[in-house]
Amino acid sequence: MCEHLEVPRPLRLLATMAWSLTESAGLPVAAYAVAAWLGGRDAALLAGLAAIWATAAIRKVATRCVPSLMTISAVVLTVQTAVLLATGELWIFLLQFPLGNLCLCVLFARTAHGPHPLAARLAAEMVALRQPATHHPGLHRFFQGVTWLWAGIFLLLSAGLAVMMMTEPAGLFLMLSTVVTIALVVIGTGASILWFLHALRKFGLSLRFAPA
Questions:
Q1: Coil, strand or helix: which one is 84?
Q2: Can you give the pLDDT at residue 1?
Q3: CA 79, CA 77: separation in Å to the nearest integer?
Q4: Which residue(s) pair with 206 in the sheet?
Q5: Considering its fold, how many domains does the chain have in total?
Q6: Stated pTM of the model
Q7: 3-state class of 116 per DSSP?
Q8: Can you say whether the dihedral through the CA atoms of 182, 188, 190, 196 is positive or negative?
C-alpha cells in the first residue's frame, strides 16, 4: 500500500499558516508599533521582546510545547534587541543583521543530525504536515537534508551581510540586505518544495488533503 502524507484542506491550511505567523511575528510587531507610538524606539524594542516571550510562556503552560518558529523569532529578536540597546554606534546597529542570520544558522544546524530536524518541525507546525504513521527513514533523511540546506542559506546570508556591512554605506546596506534576504529565502523555499516533491516520488509516497 502506498504511504501518504497529509496537509489540511486549503482554507484550514491558510488559517494554520496565518495563526503561526501571527503568534511568531504579528504580535511582536503590533506590540512594537504601539510602544513606538507611545514611548519611542527603546520602549518599542522591549515591548516586542516582551510580547514574544509572553506568548511563548503562555504556549508552554497551555500546550507544554513552544512552536519552533516562535522559538526562532524569540532568539533572533532577543539578540537584535540586546545589540540595539547596547550602544548607539551605527556599526553595532547594523551588526544585528548578520548576527540574527548566524543565530538561525546555528538553530538549524544543531538539529540537522538529530531525530527531530527543525525543517520537519516547521512543516508540522506551519502547514500541519502529517507524516506516515510508521517512521520512514528516507523521509527523515530528506528533512535532515533540508535542515542543512537552510543552515547553509542563513550562514551564507550572515557572511554576505557581514561583508556588505563593512564595504557599503549604511543606506545601501539596508536596501541590499533586504533584497538579498528576500531573494535567498524565496530561492530556498522553492528548492525545498522541489526537493520535497522529488523525495515523494523517489520513496513512493503521496500527498493528500486530510479528511474534512
A1: helix
A2: 41
A3: 5
A4: 4
A5: 1
A6: 0.74
A7: coil
A8: negative
The list of the chain residues with pLDDT below 70 reads 1-2, 87-93, 212
Amino acid at 200: L
Among all chains, which residue has been given the C-alpha cell 518544495? 193
Q: Which domain holds residue 167?
A: 4-209
Cell digits of residue 142: 530528506
Q: What sign does the CA torsion over 55, 60, 62, 63 have?
A: positive
pLDDT at 148: 96
DSSP assignment letter at 127: S
Phi and psi at residue 207, in whole multiples of 5°? -120, 130
30-65 pLDDT, tens per residue? 888 888 888 887 788 888 889 889 988 988 888 887
Q: On the CB side of 54, how many CA atoms lie within 13 Å of its CA?
A: 9
For residue 95, give the C-alpha cell.
Answer: 551588526
